[in-house]
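Problem statement: downstream parser choked on a complex file, so we are re-checking the raw output for the nickel (II) ion run. The parser issue turned out to be on our end (a line-ending mismatch), but while we're here, posting the original submission so the record is complete.
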Amino acid sequence: MISRNLILAALAAATFTAVPVQAEQGDWILRVGAANVDPDADSDQIDVAGLATLDGVDVDDNTQLGITITYMLTDIWAVELLAATPFEHDITVNGVGIDAGSTKHLPPTLTFMWYPMGGQESKFQPFVGAGINYTYFWDEEVDGELEAALGAITEPVTGSTDPVPADLDLDDSWGLSARAGFDYMFNDKWGVNASVWWIDIDTEATIQTELADVQFDVEIDPWVYMLGVSYRF
Ligand code: NI
């Protein structure tokens, strides 16, 4: 009976002391959670020095720790910065299914956000936004499978099927982004969030070998999904 009374008392306290749950001017919202970058890759074909044409590349998805920090400029307008631990993606050659290599990247994204229910007493706070992304690639690596394939392709020139050592370079990308999601606040400080970005990330890839440099464009254009905890202060 005591525990039942305690629960009832706690429920009553929660009901009657609940503070209005709303985003308002001057608030900061920190979100931490799992962020999945899922590329919708569209790649040019790869012309290997006139000797062969490969079907372009595909880029797999990767999940890291995502962090966003939002500042409410007014009750309904805000700016948000997306940060994360570095994403690492495997790259495969389309059609032939060989591993091309991998890359790491960080896609910091600054978004101008609209909270249509900002300033209203609601636990549910949806948002939409548009912004700008900068994506920095580093630690690009070429897989031995691609070097072996280059060896086979270049045999008419080199007279050997030995693997051709190669380096990969991906240009940095600036692009626009779109964003939508919501916070569901349990109280004045804590809640959960679910959201998505679409980011226009386009890069020029260069495969460098002693024989030739091969360049091709890759549109990565990922969907980024995030689920996490929200903290307002
Ligand atoms: Ni694009």
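For whoever reads this later: The first strand starts at residue 28 and ends at 38.
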